């Protein structure tokens, strides 16, 4: 991961991050360290090795699906978990452990207060944009 992206995560601890594509993860720590580069990417001007530690409260219904797909994966020992597009996580902590950075995330659901504030804001913004475009279109057609 680029250092600038890691810095942004550090500056946004307690806030939300959304994934705009599928997210493939593993429960196998050895595999995660291997994929992260084993700390060998630590370069002050470039990229660093990062592991995401994701917490999921399985007692709560999540609106964004995720699935353990280890039996469908090419690498069964990897213990892969696939998160759907638009998964939203809270950034809980960003900390360096020896040569690896660990970003702690928590999968959130629709009942999360921060999620509700965010979606209310986006809905308001979306409605304002729609009304603006509608008014522009209407004024253009009237001429």
From TrEMBL:
SUPFAM superfamilies: ADP-ribosylation. It comes from the Eukaryota. This is Uncharacterized protein.
């Amino acid at each position: 991961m680029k250092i600038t992206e890691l810095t942004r995560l550090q500056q946004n601890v307690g806030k939300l991050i959304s994934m705009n594509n599928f997210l493939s993860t593993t429960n196998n720590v050895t595999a995660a360290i291997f994929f992260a580069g084993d700390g060998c990417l630590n370069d002050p001007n470039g990229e660093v090795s990062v592991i995401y530690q994701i917490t999921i409260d399985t007692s709560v219904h999540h609106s964004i699906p995720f699935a353990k797909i280890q039996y469908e994966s090419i690498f069964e020992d990897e213990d892969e978990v696939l998160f759907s597009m638009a998964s939203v996580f809270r950034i809980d902590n960003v900390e360096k452990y020896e040569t690896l950075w660990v970003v702690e995330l928590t999968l959130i659901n629709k009942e999360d207060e921060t999620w509700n504030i965010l979606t209310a804001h986006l809905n308001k913004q979306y409605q304002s944009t729609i009304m603006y475009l509608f008014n522009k279109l209407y004024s253009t057609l009237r001429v």
